[in-house]
Write a structure and sequence with these properties.
Length: 228
């Protein structure tokens, strides 16, 4: 059994995919589809060009390309576990799109533990697309703890999750349709009970507004937290 929580913690796996020219596949594929879908969703949720957005687990900028093009220069920020993915996003994807001039390289930082304090700004919106589908409940709660100091009251945090299809047998693997993904309570990819997602904000200045179906092709749901 691997010692990694998931493959995103495995630098060698990521570097091998990048060397093969498959950085898009390394972050789950569906490059065009999911890049556009998360942008359309966040724009419909109220994201405006003048807001500041933190893309948590931004990878090589599958969604970032769309947000950077739309938002005011320097208003998009991204953090990720992998410096290699960040570099590829900036040097390959942003360069190809002609968007480097809208994006200070310092707005992309490699960090663990959901720490975005190094930017010295507060965010109106936070997005975590396909992050907590690969992580445990404790990671979700830790992110809410860390994000409270870098978000404004009224800010919203959008996090995709797999929810247990049948909560009473949460402890068993569950097959999701569409997508055909099997999730687990104890290994990647993870599913959560909706009550646990709500409990992640216990005693914190966050409130779960709702969990909704946003048409994800692999049945990930969107959990929406509001900063109190």
């Amino acid at each position: 059994m691997s010692n990694w929580i998931n493959n995103y913690y495995n630098d060698e796996f990521i570097r091998r995919r990048i060397k093969q020219g498959n950085h898009r596949g390394a972050i789950g594929g569906l490059w065009e589809e999911m890049g556009q879908q998360q942008f359309d969703y966040m724009k419909a949720a109220g994201l405006h060009p003048e807001h500041r957005l933190l893309d948590l687990g931004c990878g090589c900028l599958r969604g970032g390309l769309h947000f950077i093009d739309y938002m005011r220069a320097g208003h998009y920020y991204g953090i990720d576990l992998s410096q290699d993915l960040l570099d590829t996003g900036y040097d390959v994807e942003l360069a190809k799109a002609g968007l480097q001039q809208k994006m200070p390289r310092d707005n992309l930082t490699c960090t663990e533990g959901f720490d975005a304090s190094m930017f010295g700004v507060t965010f109106d919106y936070v997005l975590a697309q396909s992050v907590f589908t690969h992580l445990t409940f404790n990671h979700l709660r830790l992110s809410l703890i860390r994000l409270q100091s870098v978000t404004t009251p009224g800010a919203r945090f959008f996090a995709t999750v797999f929810t247990a299809i049948t909560p009473e047998i949460w402890g068993a693997p569950q097959l999701h349709d569409p997508g055909g993904i099997t999730t687990h309570p104890d290994r990647d990819p993870y599913h959560y009970c909706e009550s646990d997602i709500a409990h992640a904000s216990h005693a914190l200045p966050w409130k779960l507004q709702r969990i909704e179906d946003w048409g994800h092709p692999r049945d990930q749901k969107m959990a929406i937290f509001e900063r109190l």
